[in-house]
Design a protein that fits this description.
By secondary structure, the protein is an alpha+beta fold. The chain has a single domain, classed as 2-Layer Sandwich (Beta Polymerase, domain 2), CATH 3.30.460. It has eight helices and seven strands, in the order αβαβαβββαββαααα. A hairpin with a 5-residue loop joins strand 3 and strand 4. Helix 5 packs antiparallel against helix 6. The longest helix is centred in the first third of the chain and has 14 residues. It starts with a helix and ends with a helix.
Length: 205
């Protein structure tokens, strides 16, 4: 199955519910929705509060495992269950997230809330905007998908995050989409760190 089917199922369920949670699509599906050419392996949705994870987990309970997973939280095959629909995990750096994960039409679908970013740079004045940070909510853009409008992290911000991650394949795909389809120059200048902007300025001027 494909990310399209998983996203449509989620959007349909969310639209039929009375939930008012703020959510946003990050990662490769968000890139593809903005015409970047890549093949997503999962669908990642970020929410603002832990309570949002809990409420969306209820919405997705039909996709829960019936028995609790015996896999580690670090295992890509850990999935939400009736007993444990989500978990909170902290790392030595202090980074802390709460996450639920399901298979929707056999496609991996994650809902994540980050409560402690452990100092990951997230600034629109030189350090660069982080795809998982505080600025994405006010800078989100909406894309038409099926009969829905879905919020995504703009490619301009995703570019910075993928440069940091040394994902050159995704950097190339995002740059091609931006140069082919146009981009927000002011946002791109804010989204890129000073050093990354200097490296790319000849391409994006």
């Amino acid at each position: 199955m494909t990310w399209n089917q998983a996203l449509k199922t989620f959007c349909d369920l969310y639209s039929e519910s009375e939930l008012t949670n703020k959510w946003i699509i990050v990662g490769s599906v968000g890139s593809v929705l903005q015409q970047a050419i890549m093949t997503p392996n999962d669908l990642d949705i970020y929410v603002r509060n832990v309570e949002d994870v809990s409420q969306i987990a209820v919405l997705l309970r039909q996709f829960n495992l019936r028995t609790k997973s015996d896999r580690s939280y670090f295992d890509s095959e850990w999935f939400s269950s009736d007993e444990e629909p989500f978990f909170t995990q902290s790392f030595p750096s202090g980074f802390t997230w709460t996450k639920g994960k399901w298979k929707i039409h056999d496609f991996h679908f994650e809902v994540v809330q980050i409560s402690n970013s452990a100092g990951i740079p997230d600034s629109d004045t030189g350090e660069g905007i982080w795809e998982g940070g505080k600025h994405i909510w006010e800078l989100s853009k909406y894309i038409e998908f099926e009969t829905h409008l879905v919020p995504v992290v703009p490619l301009e911000i995703q570019l910075e995050s993928n440069i940091r991650r040394n994902r050159q394949d995704r950097v190339d795909a995002i740059m091609k989409a931006l140069l082919s389809n146009g981009y927000d120059k002011e946002l791109l200048r804010k989204a890129l760190s000073t050093s990354n902007f200097e490296q790319l300025k000849d391409l994006i001027q």
